[in-house]
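EI: anyone free to look at a 172-residue chain?
SC: sure, send it
EI:
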Amino acid sequence: MSDRSQLLDAGRPFAFDETREAEFTRLEPRYPERDSLIMPALWLVQEQQGWISREAMEYVAERTGAYHAQVFELATFYTMYHLRPPGKHHICICRTLSCYLREKQLLVDWLAANLDLVPGAVTEDGRFSLEEVECLGHCGSAPVVQVDGVFYEDMDEEKLGALIEDLRSEAI
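SC: here you go
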């Protein structure tokens, strides 16, 4: 399990680019309770820079009128938010009961043995990151792996190895 409380500083102030600013402006009227705008704003941050830095959380707090602690709580609670730059290919493995009972740990162990990749880490070359997440909603076809938003069901070590090889063969 990764430690989601350690945040990285980007070392530079954050602001929405033109596209995300327009989307934020479009969303504002839909959220009369400003606190409800925190999660969509965090999603816009991640869409823009690939992860959510400490500076970006402060920016979201200012833009939504929320306390910094509220933004921090949401960003650290939900595993869909990346609190550090992910690898080029972000791998999510479900850690809930259905996947656990169907040997999801073998997949985590395979990644550790073959890529030196553990939950919460990024490979040295920056190509892969791994996160154990809550239910991915495919319990009937567990274990489930999600890579870059694409679901792979009934996963086993052989299928995972083939998937990783396909991803490795892509141009960098």
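EI: The CA atoms of residues 41 and 150 lie 23 Å apart.
SC: 👍
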